[in-house]
Each structure stands twice: as C-alpha cells, then as structure tokens.
Amino acid sequence: MPYMVSEQNLRKVENYIVDRVVKSGDRRFQETLTVVAKESGVALMTAIRAIRELENAGKIISFRSASRRIANTYEYVGDLIGFIENQSSEDKIQYLQSKLAELSSEKAKLEDELDQARKELSRLKRTTII
Q1: Residue 36, number of CB atoms within 10 A of its CB
Q2: In sequence order, which residues have a C-beta less than 8 Å from that of residue 28 and are 6 or more positions away?
C-alpha cells in the first residue's frame, strides 16, 4: 500500500497553496518544491506526496519543470471559498492564527521601515536647514 500523507500535513500544504493564490489574486503561481515544503512546515518528500494527492483529488494542476531547482507552476482549481468554510474549527483557528502571525510580522517590518524613513526625513531636514 502506498504511503499516504496525513490529513494534517495535506492540509498544511493546501493551506500554503491557497494562501499563495489569495495573496497574488491569481490561481497560478510558480514555486520550487523545496519552498513549498519549507513554507508548509513539512518534509520535502511529504510536500511532493501531498501535491500528488491534491492533483489526484482534482484540486491543483502541476506543470513540472525539468529540475527541482527550477520552480514548478501550480494552478489551484479547487473551491477557494469552500476551502475555508469546510475546514474543521481547529483547522480554521490554526489557519487564522498563522495569518495573524504573518500579518503581525509584516506590520512590525512596515513599522521599522516607517521609523527608518522618519529618521531619514528628520536628518534631511536638519542638513537642509543648516
């Protein structure tokens, strides 16, 4: 019997793919298998198997490159709205917590950039006045 990816790991990979699609606004995106695995929080072989299972389930279409070093193209053909609505409460919470952490990190980064821009503006004002 072939190895089956756990539901949890399959969900992690699909969450990553859906997140990429939602962020870009395009159902098609390019990514290496290594990045899919890393960003999903699963092993490389698990990501490969999860993608294969998602293909077999008719949720994604993969356009493979000649090498693992070159990004594959993926197209998510699943139901984006139903994806989130059909998750268990625990999966919804986990997905939303990951989104919150991601947005908090992005907010902190933008606040740092804003602080640097303000310092630069202040420095430029001081040098212009003198």
Answers
A1: 22
A2: 73, 74, 75, 76
Task: Give pLDDT tens digits for 80-108.
Answer: 777 766 667 777 777 777 778 778 888 88
Q: What is the pTM of this model?
A: 0.65
User: 33-51: per-residue pLDDT in tens?
Assistant: 899 999 999 999 999 999 9
C-alpha distances out from residue 113 to 27, 102, 105, 110, Å:
30, 17, 12, 5
**Secondary structure of the chain in HEC code, one letter for each residue:** CCCCCCHHHHHHHHHHHHHHHHHHCCCEEEECHHHHHHHHCCCHHHHHHHHHHHHHCCCEEEECCCCCCCCEEEEECCCHHHHHHCCCHHHHHHHHHHHHHHHHHHHHHHHHHHHHHHHHHHHHHHHHHC
29 forms beta bridges with 74
Is the four-CA dihedral 91, 93, 98, 103 of positive or negative sign? positive
